[in-house]
Amino acid sequence: MIEHSHVSGESEESNETLQRIIGAEAGALDRAAEGALRPRELADFVGQKKVREQLSLVLDAASMRGTPPEHMLLSGPPGLGKTTLAMIIAHELGSPLKITSGPAVQHAGDLAAILSSLEEGEVLFIDEIHRLARPAEEMLYMAMEDFRVDVVVGKGVGATAIPLELPPFTAVGATTRAGMLPSPLRDRFGFTGHLDYYTAEELSRVIARSAARLEIEIEAKSAYEIASRSRGTPRIANRLLRRVRDYAQVRGGGAITMESTLEALTVYEVDPRGLDRLDRAVLHALCTKFGGGPVGLSTLAIAVGEETETVETVVEPFLVREGLLGRTPRGRIATPAAWRHLELDAPAPNSAHDSTLFDVSGREDGRFT
Ligand SMILES: Nc1ncnc2c1ncn2[C@@H]1O[C@H](COP(=O)(O)OP(=O)(O)O)[C@@H](O)[C@H]1O
Ligand SMILES: [Mg+2]
To answer: What is the pLDDT of residue 349?
Structure first.
């Protein structure tokens, strides 16, 4: 049984601003589609071998002892499977699951209500746990450590704290920012699993599995092609699969072939490396308008008609991760790989591009404008 409590305020602001087909955050449509695609069992969870092995030991040991396992923290970028793993944990334990999130818990009282309704052995999933309000966080420490909460009744001088015993339960926290968790909270997790980006081979398996679920026929090499453009992220892989399926249904015979895959991905402007129109516009401006840089962030943003913050937080991280863009003390630079990717001729070496520009060891933000 899965019970959702207060899931409303879920990280909406981050993706309503700019909905991109290669965005890793879940949009409303993803949320509707993803339920059907989540693996139920640990054995069906693709990749993340280390985390899977560690987790299965924790779960097996707990079930041998017949006690709820220790609290667990799952960290990693959006779309890599944290929510899925939390559900798998409850499923493998055969325990009920309650779901809430940091932003949904506004007051300690909200959390007290959730905690006091827990059954013995229940799994409490707290998504975006780094966004819990401080009083709720403090209540959670105590609940996790002592299985007890103090419920405050009344106000002012007359207020009294009534201690309430909780049945043993397992908290599973998910965060995209493990570093933002205060250490007292982090210390109360007996196990931390860090999820990393997937390889194209792994994502091909995710896609093949999803295609089977959705009863879509897909050639292995098409699955690989979609996988290579999915930025290491299963959520993106599943979304691109759905868009390619649309294309194949409308313009092709239904089955996904290499031809319809390539055409669909061209229509949706997702290039072979998973860059979309905006990513390419930024790189292109950097190479053609500023000779590959260095150029200040805000100048670059103006050149592509976007907000500085959008370029910095939404576009750049992936370009940096891919080694296409560098942040230097003097500004942004295109790496040789960027020129190659755009099929442009890089300027001759030792002209404007002395090697020191590629030394990114110094200041990282390069806000020189
Ligand atoms: N290892 C995996 N194997 C199969 N599907 C996965 C895997 N990881 C994630 N997915 C799929 O990707 C989508 C996003 O996963 P989710 O757990 O919601 O990510 P997160 O909570 O980390 O943002 C879901 O549809 C899920 O089924
Ligand atoms: Mg999630």
So the answer is: 67
Given pLDDT bands bounded at 50, 70 and 90, which one contains residue 12? very low
Answer whether residue 291 shows pLDDT above 90.
yes
Q: Strand 160-165 and strand 331-334: pairing?
A: unpaired
Q: Are residues 71 and 169 in the same domain?
A: yes
Find out whether the beta carbon of 193 lies less than 6 Å from any atom of ligand 1. Answer: no
Q: Is the pLDDT of residue 118 over 90?
A: yes
- Domain that includes residue 130, residue range: 2-194
- Mean pLDDT over residues 45-69, rounded? 95
Q: Is 234 in the pocket of ligand 1 (CB under 6 A)?
A: yes
Nearest atom in ligand 1 to 127's CA: 21
- CB 84 near ligand 1, within 6 Å: yes
What is the rounded CA–CA span in Å between residue 263 and residue 85? Answer: 34
Question: Which residue's CA is the closest to the ligand 1 atom numbered 26?
Answer: 38
User: What are the residues whose beta carbons fall under 8 Å from the beta carbon of 262, sequence distance 6 or more?
Assistant: 225
- In one-letter notation, the amino acid at residue 329 is P
Q: How many structural domains compose the chain?
A: 3
The answer to whether the beta carbons of residues 123 and 90 sit under 8 Å apart is yes
pLDDT higher than threshold 50 for residue 363 = no
